[in-house]
Amino acid sequence: MRLFGFGSRTGIDITGESAGILPSQEWKMRRFRQKWYAGETISVAIGQGYNAYTPLQLAQAISTIANDGVMFRPHIVDYIEDIVTRNRAVVEAQPLRTLDIKPEHLKLVRNALVGVNREGTGARAFAGAPYVSAGKTGTAQVIALKQGEKYVESRVAERHRDHALFVAYAPAEEPTIAIAVLVENAGFGARAAAPIARQVFDYYLLGKQPIALKPARTMAMTPTIRRATRSLTAHLDGQLLAAILLLMALD
Fold first, then answer.
1. What distances in angstroms separate CA 46 from CA 51, 95, 205, 242, one per listed residue?
2. Is the C-alpha dihedral spanning 121, 122, 128, 130 positive or negative?
3. Whole-number Cα distances in Å, 216 to 116, 220, 248
4. Contact 12, 56 (CB under 8 A)
5. Region 36-54: what's the mean pLDDT?
6. Residue 212 and residue 164: Cα distance in Å, rounded?
7. Following DSSP, what letter does each residue of 123-140 receive, concatenated?
8. Mean predicted confidence (pLDDT) in 205-229
9. pLDDT, tens digit, for every residue of 51-61?
10. Model pTM?
11. 3-state secondary structure of 183
């Protein structure tokens, strides 16, 4: 996980970035003064427990997979212009490192991500797309449950409901865009986040304007999607870019 940048700042060219939390024995001892239990390794390995990552880290990780293991530093600034001379200094993409991963292992993961959008949890959102995409749905738990307690969305206050997550890239063969979508308190990633990613991809790859999404709460986000595809982006190399959409639930 650390290899993909989780638990570390990406170095994006804006202030206030969080490092997130990549749990470890040392972290738990430092934070809680408690030892690490074997069962916690399993929990952390499947994305539960103390894991806490930022959407930017998710976007960087999925773009690294799309980039065949080459990780770039995300950036927002395209160029810096001298107000006197009007000369422009282009901000070039900065490769950070190439991950030490066997090509066959990376290919296996990429094929699995394509499968998510073909016949898995992302299939409905990407049905009929004229391009092949790769992705992964997910949820982020907001509050802890008591031992033996079952999560029932209708019984939980909206502000305590799970966040919907989706990471993806396209076209799968030669990626030019990677994305991480988070919809606050919206539940399953397949239901709330993946359809938004589909619209962003359609807009970026095909020039297709976004349409209203249901439910109504998401419909109000359409202008945000449109603006985000133009401005909230991070160029990771000459072609590939990552867009991070933070869609906050309306009161």
1. 10, 28, 32, 24
2. negative
3. 26, 7, 14
4. yes
5. 90
6. 18
7. TTTTTT-SS--EEEEEEE
8. 59
9. 999 999 999 99
10. 0.81
11. strand
